[in-house]
Amino acid sequence: MIYLNYDSVKRLAQSSSSYSLLEDGEEVEITFTPPSSAEAASVEDQEYVRNVVRIFGTRQGDKVLVKRAVVESEDESRELTEDELEFWAESVNSY
Questions:
Q1: Tally of domains in the chain
Q2: For residue 84, what are the domain limits?
């Protein structure tokens, strides 16, 4: 199971245009739009298809239990594993 610090997620959503946070009662959806490798390297790449990562969870006090995560591109969607989310979750929790 992966847990996120709710306050860290909220701060990220308020301070970074790459993140958004939607809440419906205890249900939480975090949307993250990572930069392309070209953007990260400050190089123009007009053929890049932007990915969007959607993390679905349940708020439990000051934590969010991640129930599932999906990476979506223009033509496909796939579930992310806990192993794939682990490093990202660590960086979010340290924010």
A1: 1
A2: 2-38+47-93
What is the token pair recorded at 4?
């996120």
Dmax (CA) for the chain in angstroms is 43
Please choose, from the candidates 13, 11, 58, the residue with its C-alpha nearest in 3D space to the C-alpha of residue 32. Answer: 13
Cβ-Cβ contacts under 8 Å for 36 (sequence gap 6 or more):
45, 48, 50
In tens, the pLDDT along 15-67 reads 999 999 999 999 999 999 987 656 555 666 556 667 899 999 999 999 999 99
- Burial of 13 per CB tally in 10 Å (0-12, 13-18, 19+): middle
- Evaluate whether 71 touches 77 at the Cβ level (below 8 Å): yes
Residue 6: CATH number of its domain: 3.10.450
